[in-house]
From TrEMBL, chain A:
Stretch forming the signal peptide: none
Catalytic reaction list: RNA(n) + a ribonucleoside 5'-triphosphate = RNA(n+1) + diphosphate
GO cellular component terms listed in the entry, alphabetical order: DNA-directed RNA polymerase complex; nucleolus
Known EC number: 2.7.7.6
Protein name: DNA-directed RNA polymerase subunit beta
TrEMBL record, chain B:
Assigned GO CC terms: RNA polymerase I complex; RNA polymerase II, core complex; RNA polymerase III complex
Name this polypeptide is given: DNA-directed RNA polymerase core subunit rpc10
Domain of life (superkingdom): Eukaryota
GO terms of molecular function: DNA binding; DNA-directed RNA polymerase activity; zinc ion binding
Keyword set includes Membrane: no
Length: 1182, 65
């Protein structure tokens, strides 16, 4: 740091106003902010990978289609001609032609390929009118941005030719700026042409007009064996212990399957896995022996790895082997059949499959799915057992699932592929189901060799896969048979709210731990761990319930998305000295494993491993041997009770990686992952470098923070909670949500009318386009206790400043009107049409309504004014709907929305109303240092204090806001901006620039002195009321103030009388329904304590459920007095009259004891409830 | 209810006495579009399906406080 601090802090240059103006006037073909576009990369890359493969790896969806097990039906016809069917893939096991004969003709279905077209619309009637549609149209029309999904479904009867048909699969939502989006390659200029933001970076879906994002989630690191010591494991059954190892295996299509190996106290190991959310526990040995044709001896050698001296290990392996022998399974075939018989119903496989084939399919679908070769699966299982034994023996520690080392990111594309795969498979199953129905019914039409019959079946089995995905994106709920190996079934999708640009950005970088952990009582998952250094921002997490669960990626953190070709890597490692795994080969027990993406590829000595890791990294950074730069080389050294040693290489997608400077080579750009980082020597700043130890160094210490955290000026001067608060408040600021405001129709938009660029800004401010979306105002702030209205974080606004437009904002509310939904019959002919019908020219509604029944653009609307009108052709009358309000607003725009069906007239409109929101007393403001406050007065300008140069503050805050909060950054900002304003240059506020040798106050003090101000930032001021100079100098400077979106107009709640609950007759709650605020028990207590009995009665009785009721003095009941028609009443009673009814007590049968008392109505209700339970309540009434 | 030929057959008691054409702006190409009631919402130039209502020509005056 010293090197930075010695030289003067670099200036950020100019404000770039002219340059920006030039670009805005003539937007070019180049994006101005490439950094901005990389923020959404994890979303877009993962979506792109679904449909687009690379040379080394197929697209995710084609891998998924390949993974779907065969779908077969038989027609059970006796005289099937060519029944003998031999599957191409495994002919050797398919010799049983006799059984096939019984089954009759065989038809197999599969999906060959899936294609998603770019979003198109047919605007005319014929093909020539098909046009591309752009996201803005979907936003405007409140529809979804989706492309047509088509699948090539193939089938084959017996051994005949392959037939295929292209089936429409509905419309699938498309991610904006992905390779299936029409805006993919558009330049800023074209973006503007198509009514998008010029720098729109995509990554979201447009669903029903809303921008939706699939949240990034934390997942267990794939293909890495985790040691677990979890108390709940012991509850699984007798002999189960708390120990286990678990591996989340990921297939090439990015779907995963987790296996857990349990350790039982009787020496047995059990493997746990899931099929369609159902849990299965299978003895480890059966799986092991089913995978490979081995002997017990081979298994022993593989597990013990020559460590025969270790009696702890050998005894347990012996127990394991002995426990298996009673089953009497001696060969691989027997084991496969054993499994096949038991898993026959769990896996829905073709009827013709033999038990052994089913067993094989089970191994393919559920066991170590990240590798395909059975020998490799075997090796993975062996490695799991070895780690488990080491864990039980205490040789290694359990792995921490909450540490970033053992985590990766679950990307939107993965969930999307998983859902697609499942729904496509569901479609095939549906076809099978229908054909089976026909077969069992003996339908005459059922003829496999008739393509017409088959295609009819294809069409009939509702193939609307797109709608399922649409449902997922609109609700965030995962409807899935398998659960996709996820812990939660909802909350996957969030709306990308455009409150302001900061909020919008943060949505793309937020990463959630999972809904499952939100309910956990323990706080361990929420802890900030050193392993997440550089990947997850330590500052940017909300306070309150999601604290620590909802994190944000640091701004340099990337998510790997490629699946590189690593087939040459084992060879390279062998050339570096690694010895390969040979089956039955006894290796040295002291050697550690080398695993590549969860495949055991060899062994080497720990000493050699260090060497290999070092050489490999050098080769990687210098781009030799085609090694992927984001490959992780995680060497875990041998330790006593530490992490299980080994050399772990990862090249898979979805890992969190980040750039770090590599010191010992000229090519210094290295990418480091979260697994390897733990064992690497990365210096943060120059002082931290230890010669011959440190291999890497951070490019800048700010790399560890998120974009938002980096925006906090001088955050290194503030206590960390204040920086957290700023990250929260920055996202609630009324700012500039979008530049294409005219083209947007979001439900609610908050816009600051006169946003400014901050004078004090960090270096990243420009890189992330914050000047395009101003978020606040530079305000002159005096720290002074002046008016008495600034206690407790209240702040005073200068009334003249306010009148000049300081922090003036507007809210744009849009309303979609759909007449088809208001019509009495949906889907029929159009009965409602916009228009005035036969309305009088002088009708009051004509003040706001035009002849087309829509409001005038620019009309002023008060609550109750006519909003739009339509004519009901059925009832022959005009319906005028009124503006609900309650606030006054102006009609900003009226959009007429067309429909796909061109024969229908106008049915849908969207009206945007602008509601002016000048700052009011009670509105919330904040600086960028977690210092929020509420405006308590608009102080007249003449009474404001003024400085020697005559400057008045825009904002006055109380000095008490500082001592306890220690936000020194705000002081520094005040000084820096004051100097910057005087010298006309922006000030750099990137943290970690200053040191004890070169302080911030020194740096900015000099500048202030040069501008003729006091060196320390305070100055003499005069009272605006008396004109006298204050005894103390006042700290006076410029601070960037944000206006928060919490405004009194949205919050105030007042009522005297109003709606009541019909049952209890008490006031209802809720601001929307003009309800009251609960005057609760504690409030009641305080009134009692004050002895204010009248107030108590007023609040709890008169303003609530006051009621008068009859009570019978004789029996004391308030339930029994009833109205009796006078004809039936006791004629002797005094009030007897021919017409009036009389109140009589039903139990006493007289009206003599009836009197009227006042009560809370709930009391009366209670009496009748008790009466219903046969409990009599009596009142003693005198 | 065939909107392909709207001027045809005004059914008895049809409410809108005289079909008043309104001019709207296309959201995509910005062209003026004259649309009569019951006509589909389509820009005649580019076929876009979103049209904007023009700002009123009436004088808009509010009490300035």
């Amino acid at each position: 740091m010293s090197t930075v601090a010695q030289e003067p802090v670099p200036s950020v240059g100019s404000f770039g106003t002219l340059e920006r103006k030039r670009v805005h006037e003539n937007p070019g073909n180049q994006f101005q902010y490439p950094a901005l576009h990389s923020l959404a990369a994890p979303h877009i890359d993962s979506f792109n990978a679904i449909f687009q493969g690379t040379d080394s790896s197929p697209s995710w969806i084609s891998a998924a289609l390949k993974d779907i097990p065969p779908k077969v039906v038989h027609d059970h016809l006796k005289g099937a001609k060519s029944a003998a069917y031999i599957e191409d893939s495994d002919e050797e096991d398919h010799g049983e032609q006799t059984s096939t004969n019984k089954l009759g003709n065989r038809i197999q279905f599969w999906i060959d390929s899936v294609d998603l077209t770019k979003p198109m619309a047919n605007l005319g009637g014929d093909q020539s009118h098909i046009q591309r549609i752009y996201p803005s149209e979907a936003r405007d029309c409140s529809t979804s941005y989706q492309g047509k999904l088509q699948a090539k479904v193939c089938w084959r009867v017996n051994h005949g030719p392959v037939l295929s048909d292209v089936c429409p699969m509905g419309y699938l939502p498309v991610m904006v700026k992905s390779n299936r989006c029409n805006t993919e390659h558009l330049s800023p200029k074209e973006h503007i042409r198509h009514r998008e933001e010029s720098e729109d970076f995509g990554g979201y879906f447009v669903i029903n007009g809303n921008e939706k994002i699939v949240r990034l989630l934390i997942a267990q690191r794939r293909n890495y064996i985790m040691g677990i010591n979890r108390p709940t494991f012991a509850d699984r059954g007798p002999a189960y212990t708390t120990y286990g190892t678990s591996i989340r295996c990921v297939r090439p299509d990015q779907s995963s399957s987790t296996m857990t190996l349990h350790y039982l106290s009787n020496g047995v190991l059990t493997l746990r896995f899931y099929i369609d959310k159902r849990e299965y526990l299978v003895p480890y040995m059966i799986i092991l022996r089913a995978l490979v044709d081995t002997s017990d001896r081979d298994v022993f050698l593989a597990l013990a790895r020559g460590d025969v001296e270790n009696t702890f290990l050998t005894e347990r392996i012996e127990l394991l082997l002995r426990s298996f022998s009673p089953l009497g399974l001696f060969t691989q075939q027997q084991c496969l059949e054993y499994l096949g018989v038991r898993f026959h119903s769990a896996l829905s496989l073709p009827e013709e499959y033999t038990p052994a084939q089913i067993g094989k399919e089970l191994l393919r679908q559920c066991i170590s799915v990240h590798v395909t070769d059975n020998q490799e699966k075997f090796n993975v299982l062996v490695a799991m057992a070895q780690k488990l034994y080491a864990l039980v023996a205490g040789e290694c520690s359990p792995d921490n699932a909450d540490s970033a080392q053992n985590q990766e990111v679950l990307l939107p594309g993965q969930i999307y592929t998983g859902l697609l795969k499942e729904n496509l498979e569901g479609y095939l199953d549906n076809i099978l189901f229908r054909i089976r129905q026909d077969v069992s019914r003996g339908s005459r039409l059922c003829n496999f060799s008739d393509p017409v019959y088959v295609t009819r079946m294809l069409r009939r089995s509702n193939p609307d896969v797109g709608r399922k995905l649409h449902y997922f994106l609109s609700t965030g709920n995962l409807v899935s048979r398998s659960g996709l190996d996820l812990l939660q079934s909802g909350g996957f999708v969030i709306i990308a709210e455009r409150i302001n640009f900061l909020r919008y950005l943060a949505h793309f970088r937020c990463i959630h731990r999972g809904a499952f952990f939100a309910e956990m009582k323990t706080t361990t998952v929420r802890k900030l761990r050193p392993e997440s250094w550089g990947f997850l921002c330590p500052v940017h997490t909300p306070d309150g319930s999601p604290c620590g669960l909802l994190n944000h990626l640091s701004y340099t953190c990337q998510v790997s998305h490629r699946t590189p070709d690593v087939s040459k890597l084992p060879g390279l490692l062998v050339s570096l000295g690694m010895s390969q795994v040979l089956h039955g080969h006894v290796s040295n027990p002291n050697h550690i494993t080398v695993q590549l993406d969860g495949r055991v590829i060899g062994y080497c000595s720990p000493h050699l491993a260090v060497d290999i890791a070092r050489k490999l990294r050098h080769l990687k950074v210098s781009k030799q041997h085609n090694l992927p730069l984001d490959m992780e080389i995680g060497y875990v050294p041998v330790s006593h009770g530490g992490q299980y040693p080994g050399l772990y290489l990862f090249t898979t997608p979805c890992r969190m990686v980040r750039p770090v400077k590599y010191l010992s080579s000229k090519a210094n750009y290295d990418i480091v992952g979260s697994f390897e980082q733990v064992y690497m020597d990365i210096a943060c700043v120059d002082e931290d470098v230890i010669p011959n130890v440190t291999t890497h160094q951070e490019y800048a210490p700010t790399y560890i923070m998120s974009v938002l955290a980096n925006m906090t000026p001088f955050s290194d001067f503030n206590p960390s909670p204040r920086n957290m608060y700023q990250c929260q408040m920055g996202k609630q600021t009324m700012g500039t949500p979008a530049q294409a405001l005219k083209c947007r129709s979001d439900n609610k938009l908050y816009v600051l009318q006169t946003g400014q660029t901050p004078i004090v800004r960090s270096r990243l401010h420009n890189a992330y386009a914050f000047d395009e979306y101003p978020n606040g105002t530079n305000a002159c702030v005096a720290v002074i206790s002046y008016t008495g209205y600034d206690m407790e974080d209240a702040m005073i606004l200068n009334k003249s400043g306010h009148e000049r437009g300081f922090a003036y904002g507007s809210v744009y509310k849009s309303e979609l009107v759909d007449l088809t939904s208001q019509a009495r019959r949906g889907g029929g002919p159009v009965t409602l049409q916009f228009g005035l019908g036969e309305m009088d020219e002088d009708s009051p509604a004509r003040r706001t309504l035009d002849v087309d029944g829509l409001p005038f653009v620019g009309a002023h609307l008060k609550a109750g004014d006519a909003f739009y009108a339509f004519y009901d052709t059925e009832r022959k009358r005009t319906v005028v709907k009124s503006y609900k309000g309650p606030e006054e607003g102006y009609v900003d725009s009226v959009r007429l929305l067309g429909q796909d069906d061109i024969t229908r007239p106008l049915q849908r409109i969207k009206i945007v109303v602008r509601i002016p929101r000048a700052p009011l007393i009670g509105d919330k403001f904040s600086s960028r240092h977690g210092q929020k406050g509420v405006c308590s007065q608009k102080w007249p300008s003449v009474d404001m204090p003024f400085s020697e140069s005559g400057v008045q503050p825009d904002v006055i805050i109380n000095p008490h806001a500082f001592p306890s909060r220690m936000t020194i950054g705000m002081f520094v900002e005040s000084m820096a901006a004051k100097a910057g304003a005087m010298h006309g240059n922006p000030q750099d506020c990137t943290p970690f620039q200053f040191s004890e040798d070169y302080t911030a106050s020194e740096h900015f003090g000099e500048q202030l002195a040069k501008a003729g101000f006091n060196y320390y930032g305070n100055e003499p001021m005069y009272s605006g009321i008396t004109g006298k100079e204050f005894e103390a100098d006042i700290y006076f400077g410029v601070v960037y103030y944000q206006r928060l979106r919490h405004m009194v107009n949205d919050k105030f709640q007042v009522r005297s009388t109003g709606t009541i609950n019909p049952l209890t007759r008490q006031p209802v709650k809720g601001r929307k329904r003009a309800g009251g605020i609960r005057f609760g028990e504690m409030e009641r207590d305080s009134l009692i304590a004050h002895g204010t009995a009248y107030l108590l009665q007023d609040r709890l009785l008169h303003c609530s459920d006051y009621c008068q009721t009859h009570v019978c003095k004789l029996c004391g009941s308030i339930v029994s007095p009833v109205n009796v028609p006078s004809a039936f009443a006791n004629p002797g009673s005094r009030e007897f009259s021919k017409y009036k009814s009389v109140v009589e007590c039903k139990t006493c049968a007289t009206a003599d004891g009836i009197t009227v008392i006042s009560l809370p109505y709930v009391f009366k209700y209670l009496a009748s409830e008790l009466g219903a339970m046969n409990i009599r309540m009596t009142l003693k009434v005198d | 209810m065939n909107a392909g030929n709207p001027p045809q057959m005004p059914t008895t008691g049809m409410p809108i006495s005289m079909p008043v054409a309104m001019v709207y702006l296309c959201a995509d190409c910005g062209e003026d579009n004259e649309i009569k009631p019951k006509e589909p919402i389509r820009c005649r130039t580019c076929g876009h399906r979103v049209l904007y209502k023009k700002r009123t020509a009436r004088m808009v005056q509010f009490e300035a406080r």
